[in-house]
Amino acid sequence: MTRLSRHLPILEWGRQYRSSTFTNDLVAAVIVTIMLIPQSLAYAMLAGLPPEVGLYASILPLVAYAIFGTSRTLAVGPVAVVSLMTATAIGEIAAQGSESYLVAATLLALISGVMLVAMGLFRLGFVANFLSHPVISGFITASGLLIAAGQVRHLLGVPSSGHTLPEIVTSLVENLPSTNFPTLVIGVGVLAFLYFVRLKLKSVLVALGIKPRLSDIATKAGPVLAVAVTILAAAALNLGEEGVPLVGAIPQGLPVPALPIFDIDMIRALAAPALLISLIGFVESVSVAQTLAAKRRQRIIPDQELIGLGAANIASGISAGYPVTGGFARSVVNFDAGAETPAAGIYTAVGIALATLFLTPLLANLPQATLAAAIIVAVLSLVDFAAVRRVWAYSKADFSAMAATILGTLFLGVEIGVVMGVLLSLLLHLYRTSRPHMAVVGQVPGTEHFRNVDRHQVITSPDILSLRVDESLYFANTRYLEDRVAELVADRPELKHVVLMCSAVNAIDASALESLEEINHRLNDAGITLHLSEVKGPVMDRLKRSHFLDDLTGSIFLSQYDAIVDLNAMR
Amino acid sequence: MTRLSRHLPILEWGRQYRSSTFTNDLVAAVIVTIMLIPQSLAYAMLAGLPPEVGLYASILPLVAYAIFGTSRTLAVGPVAVVSLMTATAIGEIAAQGSESYLVAATLLALISGVMLVAMGLFRLGFVANFLSHPVISGFITASGLLIAAGQVRHLLGVPSSGHTLPEIVTSLVENLPSTNFPTLVIGVGVLAFLYFVRLKLKSVLVALGIKPRLSDIATKAGPVLAVAVTILAAAALNLGEEGVPLVGAIPQGLPVPALPIFDIDMIRALAAPALLISLIGFVESVSVAQTLAAKRRQRIIPDQELIGLGAANIASGISAGYPVTGGFARSVVNFDAGAETPAAGIYTAVGIALATLFLTPLLANLPQATLAAAIIVAVLSLVDFAAVRRVWAYSKADFSAMAATILGTLFLGVEIGVVMGVLLSLLLHLYRTSRPHMAVVGQVPGTEHFRNVDRHQVITSPDILSLRVDESLYFANTRYLEDRVAELVADRPELKHVVLMCSAVNAIDASALESLEEINHRLNDAGITLHLSEVKGPVMDRLKRSHFLDDLTGSIFLSQYDAIVDLNAMR
């Protein structure tokens, strides 16, 4: 693979493009387009943006990802969680419905795109590793709840506001008396229909003799049917005049690519949210892409994925869109419908462009309640309490990071929630590795093995202390090591030798080196010799670059057994 | 040891107090008092505070530490680095010389004390582990340079300001023309004298037949002699009228304990600097205490040290002082002079109290240049470029954290410098552990050992992939593991089994568990079975609390050898 085709995966797959592939990609693209139209409108509404912005975010970004992305089947576009984060981020600096709200949305996509491309070029994708699974999972669950709660107002047809659960609930309760009943009927009706489609339709279709894969795809078309029926109902019954909020006129035509207005204050205010959106979007997208690629034994290249998603967001930023990423449900449909190459994404983009040009007049009568119901059904499937239970059973530390993320997101806001979770998981990781497992070991009689004195019947002698450290030594745990050695030495007046058994030490950083020097020095002051045993090759290579081995009062032994034999022989 | 005496170490050593101990402690206390008087004045000047504040910070805090601290010989009081951090922190919210500057100093001590006690009670001392050795060492070096640069103005007798090196240098250059020559003569003279004392006096005294230990202590009295001589010179030559800045009148009498004025905005502004001061002070102090305790095979208890230092700072906060911690040079003198118990600290406090009551009139004629010269000599001994070279040779990652700390501290300020260093060392640690060493292994012919295929002649088979992971699995490296497995699998069309060899995996967190489940699932989709081998006991116990073992497509083997034998037998 040349350097150029590594950064332009389209050169790779484009070269082998055949007509059978074209047919498969086209079929998948048609299905994804049908699914994406209502999704685009709905997620734009969730982000507080006019419906056409959702459509714009589903055209050029898909083409950009097809050129630069490494997943064959990932379907990029507006997604729920990123739309919520967009609403929060730009809601803080501009009023919804204002011109600057639109500018902020495109800027946010552009900044996020530039950040993603930069991370890809400088191979900084590892930054996404800060987001642990429990934090991501907790965040998605909490976001799902928050989004669902926020959409209830559209089911009721009332104005309402708020970025946290208490704000949303308070505002809803206040506005409850002004509920619009036709809206409520549509909203609840669509909700019930969509739940039927999701939970029952497949088995009904299968019972009717339709193939499971086709049935699967058909159930994904539920929202499209709901959209069509409620548009017809709204038009026939003139529901707009009954006070039912409708999508309204959508400008016909395609966005003309242009750089958004550069506002330095706005860029500064959006930088932190853009980073969070980039990271969350990347993590979600890569995980979908990995899962799908694995099914066909294909590979994705995470650093190039950053560039692909970055290009998609830059494309969104210059075509009046807003932040996008790879969507889970949509990508699965694309994959199941038989998409073979990213060309399917280009055909989908053409489909959405055609819809934007010719279908938008039909959408004016679409009730917002229909979109809200579609959003609620989609996001509630993201809420995963089972994961919370699993994490609780597996690890209390991980659970507390997850709980902090969920509670922080629901009660303090999405950005604070993620940051709290990330900080807490880092703290807990450092806490765990700062108190590594260490065992005083002794020789198992008749063998060359050494085991924990607390768990096994082993041979020890009062003048030799053998200590096994079960963790790499680095700044977070060196002081603990110093304390532990000091403690063990203080209890043993007859002690003459300390042997640190390093079989599980994968690395020793500069802090740990200084601590070892300090321990060596302190033991020497107390008339005790320090030895090491079973030091790994790479660790030893590094130690040779310091003065430690010259200053060490004792020796480095290849094995703990050698150490004991030699020290006993010296007596 | 009862719970009470664990939190009140004085009950432990006080019970066994004898008259011989009393004599030894008293002698040490007299020597430390003589050393501490000029230090208190000098460090108060460095913190931008009136001289008496330095004396106050050397009375009650010493008594509090003697009651609560666990080190037998640590000498608490004002120290250079903490004084610099105090000047920076309170300089941002109050004008030097104003009443609120004094209030801020006491509040800072009080907040820092409360934080330290809280950390001690909740066993949060591990937070100090965030400060790696290279960061601390770089910070001390940079602070030393910054302090020395900041004191040059006192040698010249000019006004000057600034908290960063460029600010200090610019301000000095501007004020250079107004240099006061008598001040310069005193300053440079004292500087030369102190360097002579430090570098040559000991060998001169030893050559004269005085014992090395006594000579050592005598060299520490250099500043006292310089103080006495320059006071006499200033009084005799009436240097105050020549424009030589003098210490001036110091209020006679002791501070009356009182809570500082509570100003909520001020507390909020001081919280972050107080935390940094607490952590830096604690780390420095514990390291001194550990070193001294080790020499006599004594123990210190880090969590109780937090309480001891916290009590000292609270005492400082309620007696018109400012933040204190254990000082290196002073503690070594205390130790060398024969102090046996913390009672020496109490006697030192009495000594300083007497000095405050009766000696202060003598100090009015002390030139500030003398104190500045003493500070410069003291802090330049903290500057350790050799450590920078050592870290460079040992590890480029640690070096870059150190360089960031030094440059950040010098050019952006002490707080930013430390924070930059801490964040960078965390990032680099995560980066390192996020790409753990993994080796595809094969069987060494004729043995049960498995080694890296790239380094050894080993037996492998095309349908089995054995992968050894040399790091605990946690959120920062799980995605790398997923990527690596995906990559290895994509290259091997004949693959049927993947065996993860976990001999160096000390822990698997919830993120890693999910990644393993995902890997298992993805491999299954590709028709490949996943096995684990050599899983450690505690890791296995935890895995049993999840569904992973039920879902695992393959088996858990006790050893890699068992895995290969079994998988070959299945063929």
From TrEMBL, chains A, B:
It is a multi-pass membrane protein. Residues 454-567 form the STAS domain. It is found in: Membrane. PROSITE patterns: STAS. GO terms for biological process: transmembrane transport. Its main location: membrane. The chain crosses the membrane at residues 21-41, 53-68, 75-95, 101-122, 134-156, 176-197, 217-237, 270-294, 306-324, 344-364, 371-392, 404-428. Keywords: Membrane, Transmembrane, Transmembrane helix. The keyword Transcription does not apply. The keyword Amino-acid biosynthesis does not apply. NCBIfam families: sulP. This is Sulfate permease. It comes from Georhizobium profundi. The lineage of its organism: Bacteria, Pseudomonadati, Pseudomonadota, Alphaproteobacteria, Hyphomicrobiales.
